[in-house]
């Protein structure tokens, strides 16, 4: 189907190494239901995971139609578009470009041919062995085909889709089962051919993926919120190293790799919706507990505790509770401005911060303020927050962060930019406080953050805080140009950390 019109062309924006999170994926098998609208509402519930582009593919049983574009879910789809997408199965995606530029060709789901029909695929995460996969495509289809893929869709998702076009097996399901163990990195996949809906999660379970039940069908999604939005009950998480297939014969599963478990701790800190539950732990409760721990570890003499809304609110509630300092709302948030964390350029990011938050002078003036946020990446948000509080008459501003310093890039689906752009790289708390204009700055300890998740330390990925990458990274020459671009200095510290990374393989 044709793409929509009137969407912002982000290819015109110069800064490709922006801070982003990852993506949201959704799939539904429900004959007789309006699956396109179910996918639309599911993606709407996952919009916090990706705001650059979105798409929905629907199978009629004979063919797959896909509609996708640059922009928000609510901007891309309207009643007429959704009514044109009729069928029994749908796969949806909302995206941030952790690999590949933000352009229409890179919007998902991707669509590709296979010997058994067509496949539509949506991916959350990052594949780290893209050069190896690209070589496989060259062996399967020739160097010309490989070049065509890289010239068009430049995402790792396109490589996976192309590798499913393989006639060496008796079925697409067998092809998938053979391919999945060859993928390295983080992936939660939702995809389909004309008759079957599939979901798969990498052996480490870095990104979340859950299975739900409708009255007349099944749903898979990045988070439980999407299931609740479409009226599906939660059955369970898709297990790390598991593939699930759903069709007219029911639900069947296949283990393609041994479970390793290294869920992303940043899902608890920021990425997931507060109403999500990951590995049995409610995200909101984790964030409140992080605030309590932060208060016990880093006390401050202050008159009020305020959050940076909305991401800092649960931790600020916990901080106020544990410290005994009154909680207050010190900012009014403009609900119609998107997350500044993910704006595409430095200029727009700073403008977004000013549009997004307005300090309440009647609450702030003359007060010693503790302001709580979930993380500091570049420091732009905190710098603007502190400035706003000063302008509103705050006597003192003490910044408290409910995660440790972000010092390392993520290769598993979050774009924290280069090490050179991370404010905590090479600077201590006092220096960062001075940089953002605060009277003081304190982070939660790594131990305190992990304790708040109620997960075993060895079952979490904390690489962005520690540089300890649980999925061993290949050499830079094998990471692929789309990942190398995110850290052009090829810092020797990362090569050293790669060498120290756990050598356990997904087997």
From TrEMBL:
Q: Which SUPFAM superfamilies match?
A: N-terminal nucleophile aminohydrolases (Ntn hydrolases), PRTase-like
In what ranges is there compositional bias, type Basic and acidic residues? 478-499
Q: What class of enzyme is it?
A: transferase
Where are the catalytic residues? Answer: 23 (nucleophile)
Keywords, A to Z, come to: 4Fe-4S, Glutamine amidotransferase, Glycosyltransferase, Iron, Iron-sulfur, Magnesium, Metal-binding, Purine biosynthesis, Transferase
Name what cofactor the protein needs.
Mg(2+); [4Fe-4S] cluster
What reaction is this protein's catalytic activity?
5-phospho-beta-D-ribosylamine + L-glutamate + diphosphate = 5-phospho-alpha-D-ribose 1-diphosphate + L-glutamine + H2O
Pathway(s) the chain acts in: Purine metabolism; IMP biosynthesis via de novo pathway; N(1)-(5-phospho-D-ribosyl)glycinamide from 5-phospho-alpha-D-ribose 1-diphosphate: step 1/2
Paste the cofactor note.
Answer: Binds 1 Mg(2+) ion per subunit. Binds 1 [4Fe-4S] cluster per subunit.
Q: Which residues bind [4Fe-4S] cluster?
A: 264, 410, 461, 464
Residues of the signal sequence? none
* Residues given in the record as Mg(2+) binding sites: 311, 373-374
**Residue ranges of the Glutamine amidotransferase type-2 domain?**
23-249
Sorted alphabetically, which Pfam families does this protein's record hold? GATase_6, Pribosyltran
Q: Which residue ranges are recorded for the region named Disordered?
A: 478-507
Q: EC number(s) for this protein?
A: 2.4.2.14
Among its keywords, does the record have Transferase?
Answer: yes
Q: Which family does it belong to?
A: In the C-terminal section; belongs to the purine/pyrimidine phosphoribosyltransferase family.
Function in brief: Catalyzes the formation of phosphoribosylamine from phosphoribosylpyrophosphate (PRPP) and glutamine.
Q: Any idea what this protein is called?
A: Amidophosphoribosyltransferase
